[in-house]
Amino acid sequence: MTDVNLVPLLPATQVLLTALVVLLLDLFYQEGEKGLLAWVSLLGLALCAGETLFLWGSQESAFGDAVMLDNFALFFTQIFLGAAALTILSSVHYIRQAEIHEGEFYALVLFATTGMILMAAAKDLIVFFLALETMSIAVYILTGIWRASGRSSEAAMKYFLMGAFATGFLLYGIALIYGATGSTHLNEISNYLIESPEDWPPYLIGGALLLLVGFAFKVGAVPFHFWVPDVYEGAPTPVTGFMSVAVKAAAFAAWARILMHQLAPLDSDWAFPLWVLAIITMTLGNLLAISQASVKRMLAYSSIAHAGYLLVALVVGEEWGGLPLLFYLLTYAFMAFGAFAVITALAETEQSPEDYRDFSGLGFKHPFLGMAMTLFMLSLAGFPPLAGFAGKFYVFRSAVLSGHLALAIIGVLNSLLSVIYYLRVIVAMYMEEGGAEGKSFRQAPYLYIAIGLAALGTLYLGILPARALEWSRVAFLSLD
Amino acid sequence: MTSSMMIFYLLAALLVLSSLMVVFQRNVVHCAMALVAALFLIAILFVTLQAAMVGVLQILVYAGAIMVLFLFVIMLLNPTALEPRRGLSWGFGMLVALLLAGALAALVSHNEAPADPFAATELFGAPESLAKSLFTDFVLPFEIASVLLLIAIVGAVVLAKREHN
Description:
The complex is a heterodimer of chains A (480) and B (165). Chain A is mostly helical and 480 residues long. Chain A is built from 19 helices and 2 strands. In chain A, 76% of the residues lie in helices and 1% in strands. In chain A, strands 1-2 form a two-stranded antiparallel ribbon. In chain A, strand 1 and strand 2 form a beta hairpin. In chain A, helix 15 packs antiparallel against helix 17. The mean pLDDT of chain A is 90. Chain B is mainly alpha-helical and 165 residues long. In chain B, helix 1 packs antiparallel against helix 2. Chain B is flat and about 50 Å long. The relative contact order of chain B is 0.06.
C-alpha cells in the first residue's frame, strides 16, 4: 500500500482548485464582469505562495516517493507562482482587447502552473512525464488561444507538433531506462546505478541520451531550437513571457533533479554532448539574435542564448553548478518577463511585427516604459549591478572553479556579443526620433504594475543577491 | 476437435478473411469497415484466451479511438476508389509480407515443445489486478492524467468552438 500523505501535493492542489473555481465562475459571470476572474486567480496564487513559505524547509514525500516536497521543489514553485501572477497581471488588458476568452485563459495559466509545480516535485518518471504533458498541453492551447490571429494559430500548431516530437524522445528514453533498471522511480534508478557500476546495458546510456535530447527540445537548445522563434513570435505576448520564464524554469528544474542529480553516475556519458550543446546554443543564439528585425524575435533568440548559459551550469555539474543554475533561473525570470511585458505594452496588430522602429523615441514618449526596458536590456546583457550580471557571474565563476575554463571564456565572449543587439533597443528608444507612424502604447495600469515589479526584482537581485543566493543554495542542497 | 478449437478456427478464418478485405477492397470506406471487423475479431480472440481486459482495451482503443481517427481522415480527404497498385511500393509490401510470413513459419515450426508458459497468477491481466495497481501504486499518475484530459477538453472547446457573433 502506498502511504497517504497529501501535504506534498498541497501547492499543486491549491493552484489546481483555483483553476477549477475560475472555470466554474466563468459560467456565471457576464461579459464585462470577467475581470474579476483575474483577481480570483491571483488570490489563489497568493494563498499558494503563503503555503509555500509556510512549508519551506519540509522534506516530505508521498505516494510511494512519487513526489517529494523539498526546498528544491518549493523554490521552483515560488518561481512558477510569481511568473503566473505576473502573467495574469500583464494580460488583463491585453486579452480583453484581443477578445480572448478570459476564464479559459486564466484557468489554463493555472493548469500549466499546476503541471510545473508537479514537474519540480516529481521523483518518479511517470509522474514527471504526466506533469510535463499537463504543462505542455496547457501552454500549446495558450499559444493558440488568440483565435483572431493567424500567427497565433500557426505558432500553436508548430509548438504542438514539435512538442509531441520531443515528448516521443522523452518517453522512449524513459522506457529504455525502465527496461534497464526495472523501475521508473528515481531513487531506485540511482540505487541501481550506484550498486552495479559499469555493469550497465548499452541501452541505459541510450535512454539517458534520449532524455537529454527531449530536455534540450523543451528548453530550446540548439540544434533543437527551430520552434522557438516562430512560437515565441506568434504566441500572444503575455504567453510568450510565461513560456520563456516558467516553462523554461520547469524544464530546467526537472533536468536538474533527474539528470544532474539522480542520474549523476551517468554524467561521464553525456558530459561531452552537453558541453557541445552549451557552446553552440550560446553562440548560435547570440549570432542569430543580432540579425533579427523584430524585437520579439530577437528576444526569442536571446532566450535560446540564455538557455545556453544555463547549460553551462549543467555541464559544470552538481557540486558547483547547482546554486548558479537556480539563481540564474530566478534572475532570468524577472528580466525576461519584464522585457516581454514591455512588448505587451506595444499595441500590436495582426500584420505588423514588433520591430525596432516601433521603439523609436519611446524613452521620451513613455519615460516609465523606456526606463524599464533599458533596465531589462542592460540586465539581459549582463551589466552590473543588475540581476543578469549577478546570475552570469555565478555561472561563469562555477565554470572556472570547476576547471571548465574554455566554457567560461566562450560564455563571456558570447555575453559581450549579446550587448550589440540589446543596446540596439536602447539606441532606438533614446537616440532615434519617433516617427508619426510609431505605434501607440497601451494604457493598462496592471501591466505597468507587472513591469514595475519585474524591474524591482531585477534591481534587487542585482544589488542585494545574498539572500536569494542563500535560498538557491539551501534549495539545491535539499535534493536527496 | 474440442468446441473451443472450433471457435478458434472459426474466428481465425473470419479474421483472415476480413484482413484480406482490408487489403483488397477498392473502396476506402469498405477497407476501414473490414479493419473494424478484424479488430473486433482479435478482441474476441483475446477474450477466449482468458484476457478479457486486453480484449476490452482492444475494442476501446483500436476499434474505438483509432478507427474514429481513420474515418475522420477518410471523410475529410474523401478519396475516390483506389487504383490497383503495382510497382515499387507493391513490391516492397510483398517483400515485407513474405519476410514476416517466413519468420512466423520458422517460429511455429521450431516451437514443438511449448516453452514454459509465463507463470501467470489467476488474476493476471484481469480487470481486478489492473484496477488494484491503478488505484494504489499509480493513483497519483491516474489523477494527473485526469487533470490532463480536463485541460484537453477545455482546450478543444476554446480553440474549436464556433463564435456566436
